[in-house]
Structure formats: C-alpha cells, structure tokens
From TrEMBL:
The keyword Flavoprotein applies. InterPro entries: FAD/NAD-bd_sf, FAD/NAD-binding_dom, NADH-Q_oxidoreductase. This is NAD(P)/FAD-dependent oxidoreductase. GO terms for biological process: aerobic electron transport chain. Residues 6-330 form the FAD/NAD(P)-binding domain. SUPFAM superfamilies: FAD/NAD(P)-binding domain. The keyword Flavoprotein applies. It comes from Chitinibacter bivalviorum. Pfam families: Pyr_redox_2. Keywords: FAD, Flavoprotein, Oxidoreductase. Belongs to the NADH dehydrogenase family.
Length: 433
C-alpha cells in the first residue's frame, strides 16, 4: 500500500464524520494513509436532531463535536474551510478564504491534494422556486438556522404572553409533512407546554401550529397506518394538518395557498424537500435536476472513478437500474460504513462489490415521551408493522446513541449518555436563554 495515499472527505455531517472516523482509526492512526476531513464549520451536530436544537431541548454547546479535537483522537486531519471547486486533472480541491465574525480575511484561498476524493456535502432545503419563500421563511438546514428559529420562538412567545390578551395567538406554519416538519411541530408544542410550566404567560391554548402538506397525507413515505397514527397524535395536541395543500407564495404574514386561501403565520418554516447546493452542478460532475451528484452502485461518480459521493448530495441508485435512494440519515450511515471498508479493500488491491442498502424502517418523534415508527429492520421491509408511544421513543433515542458510538466508540458514548442524565438533574429540560 502507498503510505502517502491521501483520502480527502469534504463534509463533516453524519456520513462524512463517520467515514473519517473509521478511516482515521484503521488507516490514519496506523500511518497507512493520510485522511483529511474538510468542513467550513469547526463543529458537528447530528442533523436529524436540529428540531430539538430549534426548541432548546438539545444544547449544542454540550452535544456538538469539535472536529479539531476529534481528529486528534481518531487519526485524521481536519482542514477548516468551505470547498469552492475542484481540479480533477491535478487532483486538487480549492477552499475559499476564511473570514472572522467581523468579515476580516484570516487566510486566503488554498488547495488540498487528493488521491481519492469523497464528497459528503449534505443538502439544503428545496423551496421549488416558491415566490417569497427565501425572504419570508425560516429554514432548518444548519445549527445556525436552528438557533435563529429557537430565538424567534422564545421572543414571540414572550411578546404574545406579555400582551395580556388571552385571545391573542402565536401562529406557526410549517411547510412539509415529512419527518422534519412533523417532529418540529410536535417539539414546538412540547416546548410551549414546558415553558408554561416554568411560569411563562403564554398558555398552550394560545399556540396554533399548522403543517401544510401537498400530498394526501403526512409522512407519505411511511406505511399508511403509521401516517394515520401520527395524524391523530398531532390532533390530540391541537396541531392542525392541511393535506392536499400547495403553497403558491409566502408573504410577510403567512402563506398563500393554491386554492386562494391565506393562512396567517407569525413564524413561517420551510421543511419541504431537499436538494444539493447549486454550486455542485459547476464541478464538471454529472448531476441531476436537484444538483445531486450521480454515482454508480459503488458510489463512484459517473464522471470520475477517483471521486465518490455519499449522503444527501449523492443521487445513488438502489441497485443496478433501481430507483434513487432517499436522502435520509440511515442511508448516509450505511454508505459511510460500506465506503470505509471498500476504500480499505481498494487500497489493498482487492475487488470491490456494489453497495446494497438495507432498509431499517422509519422512526418519527412526536414529542418528549412518544414516537411512532416501522420496524423494517426486525420484521422485514414488506410488512406493515409499527410501534408507538414510549417504546418507540426509546428506539428513536437509541438512534442518536448509535451515531455517538460510531463517532466516539461505545465506552465514550455510554459516558456521554450518563453525563446527559446527570446534567438534567441540575438544569431545566429546555435552553431558555
């Protein structure tokens, strides 16, 4: 094996970080290859939990992973900066200059050489060109987005509660009835109830949340029985669901629907659909209409076999000629695990086999103590069987612990879990500042 072989991974999301960790431990720490992780943020937070960051249920200061420290402990190197281009002939990626919080340039553009390049850049919200969406909606793509939404919820909760008018409402509209939209709605409802218990003037009766979904039902990718249970659980909390509703435009006061109705909303969140960043289509690699990089069943780009793509930024087929895999955390996790083993085989001159996705079901949180999900990993993907309530919530919570185990190892993951339990004894369940 060439000990100077450089594997550069761009993107420190769930897939990119897990891949860098596995390769760092197996190759980097043993000086068998150089592993470099590139990201424009210095820290990582698990994206499926951004709805908890947005409501203060998850404190990023305690749960985020610092790339510099993690790289030091796990045998890889971290490069801070945003990728802005690639020269595939020279096998170099270009990073943009880094600026401080005041906009002062800290370092100019620079290049990083690679022998194998893995793009794990995730995705952003797809507003489908809806007029006013970018200007009048909040999004949930990054921890910064989640923090802005959290501050907005706190500010308006105080304003409505302090008005002294019990008839005034805090109205929230969420576009998208997928897992993100449903989980966010349930978590906001739980947050307002907890804040009221802490003494906030805003009562749960003053909260109005509406989920706007264009399909006939929410969680359209899940079994119908699961979707029905989630709909009923949301209704019990007073959360309204408007299915078969298309958003024609977003205004400063709410949503203009396709049927001419205007839905008032003080807080407007767009959580419908994802796409890859527009600049990915400028790299000279084959992409689809959502800017996702088209890859083979071995996750190699169709344009360049030295470049791989995984996670939400990749348009990966489910088997030869199969449909495109969904942009979910479980797909990214399985691709990262498979690619780590495959790259080790490839460097050892061994034959690689195509990636095979194994459906693990779907879990959706419906608040602090309940969730709903299918158990495809246990009973098989063809059976319509789901769990609900506290048992489902326990399974849902375990998914994050599995991610922590992949990133930190089981010993540290258990210690982090114990630490979380101990911290909850001495602090509020929500971040209220």
């Amino acid at each position: 094996m060439n000990s100077t072989h450089k594997i550069v991974i761009v993107g420190g999301g769930a897939g990119g970080l897990e891949l860098a960790t596995k390769l760092g431990r197996e190759l980097g720490a043993k000086k068998r290859a150089q592993i470099i992780l590139v990201d424009g943020s210095p820290t990582h937070i698990w994206k499926p939990l951004l709805h908890e960051v947005a409501t203060g249920a998850l404190n990023t200061g305690e749960d985020e992973v610092n790339y510099f420290g993690h790289a030091y402990r796990n045998g890889y190197q971290f490069e801070f900066g945003w990728m802005q281009g690639v020269d595939r002939e020279r096998k170099m990626i270009r990073l943009a200059g880094v600026k401080d919080a005041q906009g002062e340039l800290l370092t100019g553009e620079r290049e990083i050489a690679y022998d194998t390049l893995v793009l794990a850049l995730g995705a952003i919200a797809n507003d489908f060109g809806t007029p006013g969406a970018q200007q009048n909606c909040m999004f949930l793509n990054t921890p910064n987005d989640a923090e802005k939404l959290r501050r907005r919820i706190l500010d308006l909760s105080f304003a409505v509660g302090a008005s002294g008018n019990g008839a005034s409402k805090l109205t929230i509209g969420i576009v998208g009835g997928g897992a993100t939209g449903v989980e966010l709605a349930a978590e906001i409802d739980h947050t307002i109830r907890e804040m009221h218990n802490y003494g906030a003037n805003l009562s749960p009766a003053q909260l109005e949340i509406t989920i706007i979904e264009g399909a006939p039902r929410i969680l359209s990718g899940a079994p119908e029985s699961l979707s029905q249970y989630a709909t009923e659980a949301l209704a019990q909390r007073g959360i309204m669901v408007a299915c078969n509703s298309r958003v024609a435009a977003v205004t400063e006061t709410g949503f203009q629907l396709g049927n001419g109705q205007h839905l008032d909303a003080m807080i407007r969140v767009w959580a419908a659909g994802v796409k890859a960043a527009d600049w990915l289509s400028t790299l000279g690699l084959a992409t689809n209409r959502n800017n996702q990089i088209e890859v083979t069943t071995c996750l190699q780009t169709q344009t360049d076999p030295a470049v791989f793509a995984i996670g939400d930024c990749a348009a990966a087929p489910n088997g030869e000629g199969g449909p495109q895999l969904a942009a979910t955390a479980q797909v990214a996790h399985q691709q990262a695990s498979w690619l780590a083993e495959t790259l080790i085989k490839k460097l050892n001159g061994r034959e690689i086999t195509p990636f095979v996705f194994k459906p693990q079901g779907m879990m959706v949180s419906l608040g602090k103590h309940t969730a709903v999900g299918s158990l495809a990993a246990v009973v098989g993907p063809k059976r319509d069987y789901y769990v609900e309530g506290r048992g489902a919530k326990l399974i849902y919570a375990s998914l994050y612990r599995l991610h922590q185990a992949a990133v930190h190892g089981w010993v540290l993951a258990v210690l982090l879990w114990i630490g979380d339990k101990l911290r909850r004894v001495g602090r509020p369940t929500l971040k209220l500042h």
